[in-house]
Amino acid sequence: MMTATETRADKFARELTELKIPDPAVGRSGLWLRLGVALMVLGPVLAIVAYLMSHNTSDALVQRDAIIIALLGIAVGVVGSAVFLRYSITGFLRFWLARQSYEFARLGDRLPADPTAP
């Protein structure tokens, strides 16, 4: 029940705790976001290092190692992008769904109990 001193924001926060929706600022989602960003940065750095490594030698074995490092850099960048995208969208959709639930509850409160009543 909403009391006279409770604001809409307070009621929304209380309903979020009742729904047991975790706050994205708390927990591991922030850690995963930072890890995704770090991997997105590390990927191109590995590719650049491999490029420089391959151009500073004429040894074919070292150049092949540089190719492997460059491919690893691409894979790390793609994985980092996927992790970042997953956790950033999850945080957004979690609160969007909670907001939709709140709005539908308010809409249901405004509807008459008897559908045939005017």
From TrEMBL:
Protein name from the UniProt record: DUF3040 family protein
Keyword entries, A-Z: Membrane, Transmembrane, Transmembrane helix
TM helices/strands, residue ranges: 31-54, 66-89
Keyword Transmembrane assigned: yes
